[in-house]
């Protein structure tokens, strides 16, 4: 598989094959997952959905970027333009830019997911939300495994569910919740300059940043993506990310 060029970086595209599926499932099965008691917190689940992508077809970002897009961030944004372009190719995961009219986290990056309803398990909730948000119906046999629960500053315990989405899947984003859905190549997640960290006065924990395309992804999404990379893709079993902080704007 040829390398993919994004700016001055060279990253090797990861083929979407049954071998990759087996590797992800095997690494997740070996991982000693950490669960967190709810203790009055709300339970949510997100889906890290692995699909095939095409560098040309899926490589464009139609979202308009405002001049003050990076205002107030604790990060070095030199050379970034906020666009998620040139990141597709080979095996990929689905990432959403939230609709601008949402009451909470409008315009932010997120994995498909939401609150667990009633007695729903995390996989059930993640698959339901995936269907509702992106129009992609998948059964529980598509679930490859779970990563560690991540506790947010806003009072949620989020369970990441890794899902094998299939090859050339069709997506129908719900415009009330999703401005656009992107296929991000796994190679982009595995860049040598990722993850990055920033410091803030409000916490002694490092704020984790995942550079993707011309933008930065923050926790909780960034923390879960880092563990997905380390554990599922690279086989760094039992690596933890619960010490990674969210930026203050995500505390609400």
List the helices and strands and how they pair.
Elements: E1 3-6, E2 9-12, H1 18-30, E3 42-53, E4 90-98, E5 109-110, E6 113-115, H2 122-134, E7 143-146, E8 150-151, E9 156-166, E10 178-185, H3 186-189, E11 196-200, E12 203-212, E13 215-218, H4 221-233
Parallel strand pairs: 3-9
Antiparallel strand pairs: 1-2, 3-4, 3-6, 4-5, 4-10, 7-9, 8-9, 11-12, 12-13
Give a quick rundown of the structure.
With 252 residues, this protein is an alpha+beta fold.
> What is the CA-based Rg, rounded?
17 Å
- Structural category: alpha+beta
Strand content: 25-35%
Gross morphology is globular
Oligomer: single chain
Between the first and last Cα atoms, what is the distance in angstroms? Answer: 42 Å
Q: How many DSSP H or I helices?
A: 4
- Reported by name, the CATH topology is Nucleoside Triphosphate Pyrophosphohydrolase
Can you tell me the number of structural domains?
1
Order of helices and strands: EEHEEEEHEEEEHEEEH
Number of strands: 13
CATH superfamily: Nucleoside Triphosphate Pyrophosphohydrolase
Q: In which range does the helix fraction lie?
A: 10-25%
Spans of 5+ residues with little confidence (pLDDT < 50)? Answer: 1-8, 102-106
């Amino acid at each position: 598989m040829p390398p993919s060029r994004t700016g001055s970086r060279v990253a090797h595209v990861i083929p979407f094959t049954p071998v990759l599926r087996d590797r992800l499932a095997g690494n997740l099965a070996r991982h000693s997952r950490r669960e967190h008691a709810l203790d009055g917190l709300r339970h949510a689940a997100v889906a890290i959905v692995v699909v095939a992508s095409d560098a040309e077809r899926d490589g464009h970002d139609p979202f308009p970027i405002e001049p003050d897009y990076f205002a107030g961030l604790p990060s070095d944004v030199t050379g970034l333009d906020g666009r998620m372009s040139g990141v597709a190719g080979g095996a990929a995961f689905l990432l959403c830019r939230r609709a601008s009219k949402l009451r909470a986290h409008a315009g932010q990056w997120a994995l498909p997911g939401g609150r667990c309803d009633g007695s729903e398990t995390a996989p059930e909730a993640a698959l339901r939300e995936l269907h509702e948000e992106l129009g992609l119906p998948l059964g529980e046999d598509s679930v490859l495994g779970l990563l560690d629960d991540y506790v947010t500053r806003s009072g949620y315990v989020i369970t990441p569910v890794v899902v094998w989405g299939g090859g050339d899947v069709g997506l129908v984003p719900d415009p009330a919740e999703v401005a656009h859905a992107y296929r991000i190549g796994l190679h982009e997640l595995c860049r040598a300059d990722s993850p990055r960290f920033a410091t803030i006065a409000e916490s002694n924990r490092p704020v984790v940043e995942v550079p993707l395309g011309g933008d930065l992804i923050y926790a909780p999404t960034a923390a879960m993506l880092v563990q997905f990379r380390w554990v599922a893709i690279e086989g760094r079993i039992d690596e933890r990310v619960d010490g990674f902080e969210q930026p203050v704007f995500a505390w609400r």
